[in-house]
């Protein structure tokens, strides 16, 4: 997978039990992958660098490990600088304590110096000891001899002391007179020398002058012993065995990295290590979110017992949101990888979405919709992508799509469900038409039986982007039979339609079997899960057995907004911090997408006839309540007031929660709406409500709808059996 946009230098890592095609997190392994990961951009890994070689087949490199890449060198220098600053700060704070301690040493040194005075004390104690010994032995000759020697040596010491003192005094005087040395400076120097000498004499021999203390700038310092202990505690390595470090443990970015082999004879595999991430993390004294592990496969020189480990200094998924690179892009092609987010080390993850389908799940308010919107936003910037959008909640999340979506279905009431189902039918018809056309094309034009960018334009087959948010709202509101056929239709769209240029992008909140039908999930190729409560829920979104392989979204916390586990293949996954596109930014992207479509003549369907989108594009000011009511009435000619109020609350609870029918009527009247009738009949029920035409009539003049594009041959066939 390649990126055409230089901004999108994408990569994807894997921690799975079989990292097909992704770069393992350890940057010193060249290609830790066995095959190309479908859809994730692989950043070319730096060459293998071995510090202390365990593998005899490889020669040691000249440079140390930390100099093997610019990132590693920069990280090490940054770490050293931070360490240095902490070290200095640590001692500066303790300066008063050091002053007191050194003062005490000096006093003690002076006392010792005075007492011992150039060996007098020692000489006297030695003499006494020898004299005692001689007396005890009644060796009177020796006693006499010692006394004579003592007198002589005392004479000698006095003489030497006198000579030394006289010499020092003469030298000082000569220095002062001849060399014009300032006597004060001399005095200070002598004082300083004396003080230093005293400190030296008074210092306890077992105490260093500057103590070492707990001043590491990072929260985690990985050592070989710590790693071995952790693996032993996790029962991955026996008590008498040790893992072999393939690369030495070293600082790598905001963490510590190594590649290690499990010892033979222990009966454990790299997959066992990945499955015990939480235990390894606990034993290392960090959160499991900080432990990034992956297998190193044979293609990268690895084996079934080789693990690449990176332990982050801190939680790598927190911090200010990362704005999406799409915000600054004028136009985008869905045939290119979509910038999606970043991995733990800040490396870009891009998704190649052609021929894929996507599913997003997880607990509410963790960033599911935001993540789902990234792919849709990229496709909005492609004027040759046609959007079908269904939002079961009918909130404000997808409101900006009104200006670009060929079909837009909001809410999950009975009538909305009907429109949702007919949208799926329309898509399946279109899929059939496309396969019928593709099957007639010569091999030279359609070599793989799939859509190509050329076929896309020549045969009017825009890439179809199907966004379904809050899928559970639709499925849970349906009767069993309808649910079953709907799931079947979705499965057909996810399984067959990608070859015809259909990309399904669905999201569901509740990770249960009804909301995430297993047979649909298993067909979907990319699955993304934000925080969930347990491993079972995580598996519900990501696939059976994924948590056991390490792809476990229950390790995420409430603070991990916009962070999720992305599964991109049978054995590949990554924890991704998604790029950030909020609703205003998404609205700008949709505005741009609309302009691109008008220019390319591809604006179609609902968006082409939406008066509010046209007015907004023309810069005409529309009262917010009028725009919002028209939005919630999207696709319907009339609506009961109660339904409008419910839907308005979904769009903006703060604004509309207190609205009563009377208040709504007043606000709309103030916005220029004149009702041709106050009652509307829907499904035989005649209640207070509004007609869409009355509201549209109130949209200020000046909003011109774009010229409709030339009619497209909509001939469709129900046959979708011609596979790509
Ligand atoms: N990539 C991100 N970076 C930082 N914060 C984010 C990111 N994505 C989402 N958030 C934050 O998380 C909040 C919830 O996001 P979102 O609406 O997508 O949640 P959700 O899971 O779809 O919730 P629900 O199921 O209720 O619709 C957002 O309002 C935003 O503040």
TrEMBL record:
Bias kind Acidic residues: ranges: 715-724
Region (Disordered), start-end ranges: 1-44, 697-724
Membrane-spanning parts: none
Record-annotated FtsK domain positions: 346-539
Compositional bias ranges of the Polar residues kind: 28-37
Positions with a binding annotation for ATP: 362-369
Gene3D superfamilies reported for this sequence: P-loop containing nucleotide triphosphate hydrolases
Superkingdom field: Bacteria
Entry keyword set: ATP-binding, Nucleotide-binding
SUPFAM superfamilies linked: P-loop containing nucleoside triphosphate hydrolases
Listed name of the protein: FtsK domain-containing protein
Source organism (scientific name): Kibdelosporangium philippinense
